[in-house]
Recover the amino acids of this structure.
């Protein structure tokens, strides 16, 4: 319950146009300090949980092990983690490309799902809680690679989860 409270607080901050990306280039030590706030840590943790759910626990764990082995006693960058995940997925999924959309954009997407008979369509757009005129910028070009998981009436959640990667503004 406490974790959910933290996540929703971070989402409220991230839904403002004055938010910042999880990862960005910095020029000074002050900028480094500004980057490491609750938003960065909580959103970062949430993104790792999203990735773990999408890849499955075993694949995610193997990727973490490769990452830790390859970078033990050394330095690393965020791309190194994504590269380790790519190594484990054998190139079947470009984890780096997917996760870059989450860490370099501020905010998060609103996904709208519409069902017409047996056809389901999904659409994404940037979610803004409140537009702050003094900090407003157009984010029309934002596009996330959103891993969506779903079940159908032929399955139950533990045995037949399907996945779809929404990497365009809309899809079916």
């Amino acid at each position: 319950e406490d974790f959910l409270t933290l996540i929703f607080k971070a989402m409220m901050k991230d839904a403002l146009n004055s938010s910042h990306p999880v990862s960005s280039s910095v020029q000074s030590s002050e900028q480094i300090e500004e980057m490491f706030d609750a938003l960065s840590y909580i959103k970062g943790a949430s993104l790792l949980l999203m990735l773990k759910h999408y890849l499955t626990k075993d694949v995610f764990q193997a990727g973490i092990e490769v990452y830790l082995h390859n970078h033990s006693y050394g330095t690393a960058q965020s791309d190194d983690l994504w590269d380790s995940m790519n190594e484990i997925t054998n190139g079947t999924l470009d984890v780096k490309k997917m996760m870059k959309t989450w860490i370099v954009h501020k905010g998060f997407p609103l996904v709208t799902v519409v069902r017409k008979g047996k056809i389901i369509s999904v659409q994404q757009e940037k979610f803004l809680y409140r537009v702050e005129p003094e900090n407003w910028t157009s984010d029309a070009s934002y596009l996330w690679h959103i891993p969506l998981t779903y079940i159908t009436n032929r399955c139950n959640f533990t045995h037949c989860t399907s996945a779809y990667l929404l990497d365009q503004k809309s899809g079916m």
Residues 22 and 44 are 7 Å apart (CA to CA). The beta strands are 109-116, 119-126, 146-150, 162-166, 170-171.
